[in-house]
Write a structure and sequence with these properties.
The chain is mostly helical and 315 residues long. The chain is 72% helix and 3% strand. Strands 1-2 form a two-stranded antiparallel ribbon. It is globular.
Length: 315
Amino acid sequence: MEFTLITFLNGLAYGFLLFMLSSGLTLIYSMMGVPNFAHASFYMLGAYVAYSIAGVLGFWPALLLAPLLVGVAGAAIEHYGLRRVHRYGHVPELLFTFGLSYLVVELVQLVWGRSPVPYRIPPELDGTLFVLYTTSFPIYRGFMLLVAALMLLAIWLLLRHTRIGLTIQAALTHPQMAEALGHNVPKVFMLVFGGGCALAALAGVIGGNAFVTEPGMAASVGSIIFVVVVVGGLGSLAGAFIVSLLIGMMQTFAVAIDQSLGGLVTALGWPLPTSAALAPVLRLTLAQVAPMLPYLLLVVMLVVRPKGLLGRREG
């Protein structure tokens, strides 16, 4: 029971962090119909900007200012770069965001160096939230859960119960009609792109000190984000939320279970294959194959339901 509850809470925290990343990308895809390959770079940028601000003003101002600054930078990139490329089709947009991801990595290395930076958990959040049997649950993991839950609630309230949210939904689904009614659709697109970048930066602010803030952090989560968005259904926030939690739980439990595949086959009562070619595979543990599980889920979903779990987009 102790192992299950602690692993569940850790998986929940990781799943909510994945949703913070994937929600912004989902909104951006809904807006433009093209995946933003630079999205994980804004996650990394949020962590580095927060590290710099925290060194001067402290963690709490960095928690507010870093997503705001990165969001403004994202809006400027959409206005002065991506919008000009948009007229030439989706392939130039893909190339633009792909090149932007490398540009951000090089910029980070020029400013902050190639080594990890000492972006640490603030002292007031560095401790034990509660002790379950003999295992302690950190305060910062609980803080990550709280911030992610508040962000989820804020997105839901914004999109469903405000005039701005209704305008955004109208511009995302029927841009020509929204423009005919007098709404500035390009400005809405710019705000949504900037907001998506700000959400990624917020994940970087609270995830950068929980893990490691270094130039490779964007590459380590970038592919997982696209798995979440594709499996959940391109453009579906609800699908991204469900799959984020699913992958968070799946990877966390797999890493924590030190059981070989052969042992699992035996435990299920199936006959153990005697082929010598399969012996190395059967010796693999779940912890070793845990990084492969999201991509296995992606392949299965594309075969069974190409549009994703809750996907509606056809084009």
